Amino acid sequence: MELVAFAGSDKENWGQIKGLINHGEWDKIIIVKNRESGDFNEEKCDVVEVNSNEKIIELKKDIMEKLKNKISGELEVSLSLASGNGKEHMALISALLSIPVGIRLVVFTKNGIEYIN
Prior knowledge:
Blueprint: E1 2-7, H1 14-23, E2 28-34, E3 45-50, H2 56-67, E4 76-80, H3 86-98, E5 102-109, E6 112-115
Parallel strand pairs: 1-2, 1-4, 2-3, 4-5
Antiparallel strand pairs: 5-6
Helix pairs in contact: 2-3
């Protein structure tokens, strides 16, 4: 399964994403990142930068355009929303569902990787 995660300006939450990256067995990892949030350096990841200052509809369209050729025909992806804000999360969820691809929310806990839906 592929992992898609949003990396926002709240860098203190990036550890959650890095836990998923380092402890999961992913076919592919795609990080959607607010371009103003700094560097998210992980060799295993395909990083997509977006301008989170755009209006939500434009942000959704931008994310969808950048992701539609990166998701390799999966029926669903694992999705981490541990970082970012509501607007960024709404745009990402809407973009994924419009591609279309299903989503399974995933978190990294003391018990390892867990799905919450």
